[in-house]
Design brief:
- This protein is of the alpha+beta class.
- Helix content is 59%, strand content 16%.
- It has one domain: Multidrug-efflux Transporter Regulator, Chain: A, Domain 2, CATH 1.10.1660.
- A three-stranded antiparallel sheet has the order 1-3-2.
């Protein structure tokens, strides 16, 4: 998939394997990087890929911190 691909809320929800309402709530709160076009959410695939990498790294760092504190 090209990096400049634009995804809909449904496509992002499918990609992340979450509900559309969850994706919408996350976009509204700024947790997912997106923008609106005439009131409808859109997402750059490259931004979502970066967001996923950041979440995985953050989860790994948290796990490392928890294991180091034992």
């Amino acid at each position: 998939m090209p990096d400049d691909e634009i995804l809909t809320i449904r496509e992002v929800a499918t990609l992340l394997k979450i509900g559309e309402k969850t994706a919408y709530t996350m976009a509204q709160s700024g947790d997912l990087p997106g923008f609106k076009v005439r009131g409808q959410w859109r997402f750059r695939r490259a931004d979502i890929d970066t967001w996923i990498r950041d979440q995985v790294e953050r989860a790994g760092a948290t796990r490392d911190d928890e294991e180091g504190g034992r």
